[in-house]
Amino acid sequence: MKLLNTFVKRHPMLDKKHMLLLGPTDDYFRKALDCNIEITILTEVSRVTVFQYEHARKVLLIRFDDFPALLLAAGDEHILRAFDFVISFTEYGMEPAAVIAATLQIPGPPLRCSLICRDKLRTRQALASTPANNVLFSKAESPAKVEAFILEHQLPVVLKPRFATGSQQVSILSHSDELSPELGEEWMVESFAPGQEYSCETFTVNGQHHLVAVTEKKLGGTSGVVEIGHCIHANMPNDPELRDWVFTVLDHIGMTDGVGHIEVKMDGNILYLIECHNRPGGDRIWQLVELATGFDMIKACIKLFANQAVSFLADYGRCAAITYFQFPAGDVESYQHPFDSPPEWVRWHEWILHKGMQIPQLTDSFHRHGGFIVDADTPQELEWRILQILSLTKVL
């Protein structure tokens, strides 16, 4: 690494920071463009878009699981035009971004934290000595190992891949005969946590944590664990006990700077950790936070790593929600929706169905049928707006 730094030559445009951005969606990329910095994108062929080609300084196409190629590409580009920092906002980009930051010795996601968050088993192990360790867990290398776990701790249990996202292949087992033989080192089993599920959206500066918003999750799908909606309003739980618990989790996973997303279930006064991430929550939760509180977590994170001041605005106290459609599986003969001319309070919408299409079973987040975001001044107004859109949307 010292050899690499020895031969770095600075670009004449020293008035602009240079960021290496891994695996962005166009929404994240647009946020970065607003920050008046040079942006080199490192991404995979399946993720790159025409918009990114047109507006990035340069696009590097490398598989995220090919770490030697990632480090060579980033290191070579760093010699030509030094990066001031590296960042990612997506699950599969966090670990590569942290490895690149550590190798090039530039600001970026903390390596230990990124490694822990990327692996659900490592997350549990890292918190083993904390109050958040109240969900029993084990590797699930084989059906026999899971059956032994069930015998010791009873049903139901949750079976999940350690590295997957979007609720892929997550299942709640109520009977041991539901076990799949296709288990191995990349699977884990844990005791089922009761209660209502929330996520805590956080922002950390130099180890100082801030709880920006609490988001209520709505679950559904064939497994009952697919996220079909998220909601933020002023009545969400936000007491000192919850904040202390969240900050303890962040401390133990090594979160030092940037955006955090802690998923938790609340059963009375008992808190159960589900997952934690050093990135924004999926399903456009970052947009809900911005609409409800006025705090732009994405731009704030870029400013933080660019060594610029970050301001925390006063809480707007507004409401925002994203709702995903749940339609029965089958063929689409006809449909109607209000999105050709939506009300101004519809802040985002997606409609992916077309006539003749076969609607798949809702087994994970990647099989959803579209959705929408609305905001409002009160929880009652928010709920009315959601019901209004749902009443205008039909699939036959």
TrEMBL record:
PANTHER family the record matches: ATP-GRASP ENZYME FSQD, FUMIPYRROLE BIOSYNTHESIS PROTEIN C
Superkingdom field: Bacteria
InterPro entries recorded: ATP-dep_AA_Ligase (IPR052032), ATP-grasp (IPR011761), ATP_grasp_subdomain_1 (IPR013815)
All copies of domain ATP-grasp, residue ranges: 120-306
Gene3D superfamilies associated with the record: 3.40.50.20, ATP-grasp fold, A domain, ATP-grasp fold, B domain
Species of provenance: Photorhabdus tasmaniensis
Protein name, UniProt field: ATP-grasp domain-containing protein
Keyword line: ATP-binding, Ligase, Nucleotide-binding
Species lineage: Bacteria, Pseudomonadati, Pseudomonadota, Gammaproteobacteria, Enterobacterales
